[in-house]
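Changelog entry

Holo records now carry the ligand SMILES as an explicit input line rather than a separate metadata file. Below, a converted record for pyridoxal-5'-phosphate, shown in the new format.
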Amino acid sequence: MSDYKQDTKCVQAGYTPGNGEPRQIPIIQSTTFKYNTSEDMGKLFDLEASGYFYTRLQNPTNDYVAAKIAALEGGTAAMLTSSGQAANFFALFNICECGSHIVASSSIYGGTFNLIAVTMAKMGIEVTFVSPDCSDEELEAAFKENTRAVFGESIANPALTVFDIERFAKAAHNHNVPLIVDNTFPTPVNCRPIEWGADIVTHSTTKYMDGHGAAVGGAIVDSGKFDWMAHADMFPGLTTPDESYHGIVYAEKFGKEGAFITKCTAQLMRDFGCIQSPQNAFILNLGLESLHVRMPKHVENGLAVAKFLEQHEKVVKVNYPGLESDPYYERAKKYMPNGGCGVVSFELKGGRKAAEEFMSKLKLAAIETHVADARTCCLNPATSTHRQMTDEQLAAAGIPAGLVRMSCGLEASEDLIADLAQALE
Ligand SMILES: *Cc1c(COP(=O)(O)O)cnc(C)c1O
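Structure line, unchanged by the conversion:
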């Protein structure tokens, strides 16, 4: 499949039925799998043979879909998780432990920020946040002796900043640690972080990959490029024996290409159990089959809406990396030449009250805490997700009270613009 274009991989990668087998990916709705001898099953528990024994760890349906996502990202191995939150937690916790340190972009999804800054801190894992636009000196100063990973979002939700993947990859590699990129917003149709040096790519498949607001899920993809053994003392979980699997050393047995995902499945999925249900994996795959057709339309609608808003007298400011006036325009052109995504944010004159009134007048765009599905939706953080904060606190957090985040769906852009125009009126 690796020679095919992204469009072909979206439709066909991951699952190739044999003669007389189902054309569509079968949903293996089974918690467990049958073996003829205890020895056969024992080999699975020793990681001596590959196969399935319990769906808390692995399921064939999930693996078909994960293989498609690996092909799309250009990785060597992948796994599905129950949510994007689980994907980011697993990707980090697979190489960090109590006493480790992470360098993370400060411009990331709120849920991931809480995960790293609050919950992982309770596990003894420290973080230093840096602006995605920090100076070289600031970036260099963020690293410590115990740094084990660098983390950022290719396009940040909801700030819509664009991450300089190549620059952060170089910095990470200079310090012998991998770069993890959450590529949820552009998806591999519009951006391929591994080609710019990212080592691990994560996704909230809940967003564009599913694309229909139907199934929560996540994914982790390994580039297979990071040489754990070359820095063996820094990543003992991958380079020293795992006593819970009879002393297997993941990086030796599964190599650069397979060690990360095998360990993540064998240890973290076994112990935390954040597996995606096979039913959701099937739904996700239906979304992936049209991802390459949908993403250009999301981008087209996002750009049309951003251009309309930019020239409207009631709008103070529009954030959309596809606009020439946007500070991230050049960087977006480099990393995602065909456009990024369909999410636009804009600040209305008149603050919180104006935003509330404007949103109540919208007819097509629904008010939702969601982004990246086929139906256009919008949110005013000041009156919803961030409503406990005062206008002053919001301003300090870089979220003006009049800010509206709009996720442009797959409707006709003329209808979306007409809806905005009448609501602004
Ligand atoms: C939504 C989102 C997440 C979290 O994903 P869930 O599937 O909601 O757990 C992580 N990263 C980004 C960029 C997101 O947009």
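Spot-checked after migration. The CA atoms of residues 56 and 279 lie 14 Å apart. The pocket of pyridoxal-5'-phosphate is lined by residues 83-85, 109, 111-112, 153, 157, 182, 184, 204, 206-207, 216, 218 (CB under 6 Å).
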